[in-house]
Amino acid sequence: MAPTWFPLFVAGMLIALTHLLAAIAGHPALLARHPPVDEPLEALHRFASGSMRGVGFGNALRVGIGRRGLHLAPSWPFRPLLWPGVPCIPWSEVRLLAPSPGGVRGWFRGTRLEIRSIGAKVELGGSAGRAVERKLGAAVGPALIRTR
């Protein structure tokens, strides 16, 4: 039988791990520069797959497409308690580095982006990445879209 403190220890470790991974990924820096904005979202992708600054968020990202910007954060079960908001990154700060490849390669590679304000590289998989690609093409024009 496990000691009575064991569930508290496990919960504490999970909370510490979510804070560490969020800090490495740059979530606090995004919140400091781009506070949450209450706006209706054109599209919301819950439990999207992706990575940021080398931290993989396999099916644990919340990606919102809004008129003002990209709402990007870990999904609620993985969002750190100290930084609970979802930053709204203006579209002018998001740059498309490489669109999602088609075919089988698209299963392994997503849309690659850069968030200029913190210099973070982001990769979004599946429909979330393609939605950001479409919005960037509409918001800033095709001049900023570069191929590999």
Description:
The chain is of the alpha+beta class. It has a single domain, classed as Roll (PH-domain like), CATH 2.30.29. It has four helices and seven strands; from the N terminus they run H-H-E-E-E-E-E-H-E-E-H. It has helices at residues 6-25, 27-33, 105-108, 126-139, and strands at residues 41-52, 55-66, 69-74, 88-90, 94-98, 111-115, 120-124. A seven-stranded antiparallel β-sheet has the order 4-3-2-1-7-6-5. Strand 6 and strand 7 (120-124) form a beta hairpin. The longest helix is centred in the N-terminal third of the chain and has 20 residues, at 6-25. It is globular, with a radius of gyration of 16 Å.
The CATH class name reads Mainly Beta
The largest β sheet comes out as: 7 strands, antiparallel
Helical run tally: 4
Strands of the biggest beta sheet: in what spatial order?
Answer: 4-3-2-1-7-6-5
Alpha carbon gap, first and last residue = 56 Å
CATH topology: PH-domain like
Name the overall outline: globular
- Give the mean pLDDT: 86
Order of helices and strands: HHEEEEEHEEH
Strand content: 25-35%
Number of domains: 1
Specify the structural class.
Answer: alpha+beta
**Which segments are poorly predicted (pLDDT under 50) over 5 or more consecutive residues?**
142-148
Proportion of helical residues:
25-40%
Number of strands: 7
CATH architecture annotation = Roll
Radius of gyration: 16 Å
Write the layout of secondary structure elements.
Elements: H1 6-25, H2 27-33, E1 41-52, E2 55-66, E3 69-74, E4 88-90, E5 94-98, H3 105-108, E6 111-115, E7 120-124, H4 126-139
